[in-house]
Amino acid sequence: MSWIEFTGYFGSFLTSVTFLPQVYKSWQSRSVGDLSIWMILIVVTSTIVWSVYAVAIHSGPVLSANLIVLALSLVLLYFKFSFKEKDPL
């Protein structure tokens, strides 16, 4: 593996983990009221488009990053529809 390919996969890893803290916090608190449904839908759409692009250019790092972010975004979307909003105090 060349250094540039390693750099691509490392960047892919870093991009992918950006959603992990939010998914974990949402799961722990069972609260996603502050998350915008539009933000989640935009991220889902953009990762699908990037994934198609990655397949077309045969880019493993771009594909792997976007598939992981897509999966995590779909989890947040599921949480958004399944967790009830808490009543304000």
Automatic annotation (TrEMBL):
Topology class, membrane: Multi-pass membrane protein
Keyword terms of this UniProt record: Membrane, Transmembrane, Transmembrane helix
Highest taxon listed in the record's lineage: Bacteria
Cellular localisation: Membrane
Transmembrane segments: 36-56, 62-79
Pfam families: PQ-loop (PF04193)
Keyword Kinase in record: no
Primary location class: membrane
GO CC annotations on file: membrane
Name listed for the protein in its UniProt record: MtN3 and saliva related transmembrane protein
Species: Sediminibacterium ginsengisoli
